[in-house]
């Protein structure tokens, strides 16, 4: 019996354990941290041996194959040691992909990938497709392959997941954009990070489709320089009708094959330039999938807001509170500020990832009346923006909300778009967003 070792016991790890048991592997799961109770229950129900709070190398190095959580760096001595011993180390997505022939619609990019993933899934589901949602959103792909197999999957892929994928093939791949992010995992070399994103093209065939953001210089230049095997379809916010998706005034036009689909951007439920990009990518993928015009329009006009991504929480005494906690890098915040049409009280801060804030300066001058820095150490933000707008330094969500509610007036927007990771004050960006929404709703109750 072959031995499967799983490193990391979250959603992907528990899913890999479920698939491994179904395939007849001897399964052992190891997590350096503490396992959540719901995942312990899954492992115990499956009869999987596991450990938490440590990695026992004598048990790990006996593996025939290892499925590694994307959060574990490849440079970790234990991972290096596994590979030196010739033990294959792969991601959960790679493991699942080896055991299904379902069609894979996969999305990556520095920004926009979650919204694009959820939008495409919504369109296909509303159109009646047998479709599953997996990757960074939805349930584990491996668990679904084991117990709830669909004919089509829409999969959000991070660069970390792509790094652990070797034989996996996308039928349709979307690359939204590439901007500096996670450089600490890539030797602080942007080229390494960009190369990781382009791994989404691995193993694709001439009949497959690669959809890419033409307006991103890094993506466009690589597409033009490299020999791209699948058919390539670019999308742009400009009126360049040489591309497969482009703008004609306020109308989004998308073409694939002999079909052309048009929709006024105001009809799409999610607004802002960044969401036009997301919609274009999803439309092109849906056209490739054969979704009818009527079902495409239905999907685009019924798609709900994405949690933690420009999510309107409440309007209190004329002030609109927006949760954009998922904006953990500069580019995401650029799109958030660009979509604002009212004076902004901007809340930013957290764990800086080597950010260059200069690309935000013009937008901040134009749109921001007050920046509230919320973090343990806000020096870099303060130094960067003090010459441009008024800045207030806070070190807790409570203090931040006091300042925001005092300074914002009717007609203003209070925008949480942090530009930074959340780990200094919060567990993750979801936790940051949830707590922000709680505080906003408490404020509404008080004002009512």
UniProtKB/TrEMBL annotation:
Its main location: cytoplasm. ATP binds at residues 109-115. Coiled coil: none annotated. HAMAP family: MurD. Cell wall formation. Catalyzes the addition of glutamate to the nucleotide precursor UDP-N-acetylmuramoyl-L-alanine (UMA). Keywords: ATP-binding, Cell cycle, Cell division, Cell shape, Cell wall biogenesis/degradation, Cytoplasm, Ligase, Nucleotide-binding, Peptidoglycan synthesis. Its EC number is 6.3.2.9. Pathway: Cell wall biogenesis; peptidoglycan biosynthesis. One of its GO terms (molecular function) is UDP-N-acetylmuramoylalanine-D-glutamate ligase activity. InterPro entries: Mur-like_cat_sf (IPR036565), Mur_ligase_C (IPR004101), Mur_ligase_C_dom_sf (IPR036615), Mur_ligase_cen (IPR013221), MurD (IPR005762). It comes from Butyricimonas hominis. It is found in: Cytoplasm. The gene is murD. This is UDP-N-acetylmuramoylalanine--D-glutamate ligase.
């Amino acid at each position: 019996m072959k031995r499967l070792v799983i490193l990391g016991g979250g959603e992907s790890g528990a899913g890999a354990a479920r698939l491994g048991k179904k395939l007849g592997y001897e399964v052992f799961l190891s997590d350096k941290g503490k396992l959540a109770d719901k995942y312990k229950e899954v492992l115990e129900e499956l009869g999987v041996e596991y450990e938490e709070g440590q990695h026992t190398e004598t048990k790990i190095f006996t593996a025939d194959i290892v499925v590694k959580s994307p959060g574990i760096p490849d440079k970790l001595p234990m991972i290096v040691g596994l590979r030196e011993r010739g033990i294959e180390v792969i991601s959960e997505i790679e493991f699942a992909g080896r055991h299904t022939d379902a069609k894979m619609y996969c999305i990556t990019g520095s920004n926009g990938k979650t919204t694009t993933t959820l939008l495409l899934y919504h369109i296909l589901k509303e159109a009646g497709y047998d479709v599953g949602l997996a990757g960074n959103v939805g349930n584990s792909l491996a668990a679904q392959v084991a117990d709830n197999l669909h004919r089509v999957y829409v999969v959000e892929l991070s660069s970390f997941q792509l790094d652990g994928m070797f034989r996996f093939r996308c039928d349709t791949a979307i690359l939204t954009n590439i901007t500096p992010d996670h450089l600490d995992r890539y030797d602080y070399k942007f080229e390494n990070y960009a190369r990781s994103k382009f791994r989404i093209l691995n193993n694709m065939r001439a009949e497959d489709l690669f959809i890419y953001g033409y307006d991103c210089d890094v993506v466009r230049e690589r597409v033009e320089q490299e020999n791209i095997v699948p058919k390539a379809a670019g999308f742009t916010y400009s009126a360049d009708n040489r591309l497969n998706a482009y703008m004609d005034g306020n109308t989004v036009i998308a073409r694939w094959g002999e079909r052309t689909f048009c929709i006024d951007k105001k009809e799409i439920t999610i607004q802002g330039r960044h969401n036009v990009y997301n919609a274009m990518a999803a439309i092109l993928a849906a056209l490739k999938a054969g979704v009818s015009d009527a079902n495409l329009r239905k999907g685009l006009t019924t798609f709900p807001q994405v949690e933690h991504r420009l999510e309107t929480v409440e309007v209190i005494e004329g002030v609109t509170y927006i949760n954009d906690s998922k904006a953990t890098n500069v580019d995401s915040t650029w799109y958030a500020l660009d979509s604002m049409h009212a004076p902004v009280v901007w809340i930013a801060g957290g764990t800086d990832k080597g950010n260059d804030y200069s690309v935000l300066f013009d937008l901040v001058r134009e749109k921001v009346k007050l920046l509230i820095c919320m973090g343990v150490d806000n020096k870099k933000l303060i130094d960067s923006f003090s010459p441009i707008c008024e800045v207030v330094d806070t070190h807790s969500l409570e203090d931040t909300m006091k300042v925001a509610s005092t300074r914002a007036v009717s007609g203003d927007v209070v925008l949480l778009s942090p530009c930074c990771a959340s780990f200094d004050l919060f567990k993750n960006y979801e936790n940051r967003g949830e707590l922000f929404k709680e505080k906003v709703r408490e404020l509404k109750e008080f004002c009512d």
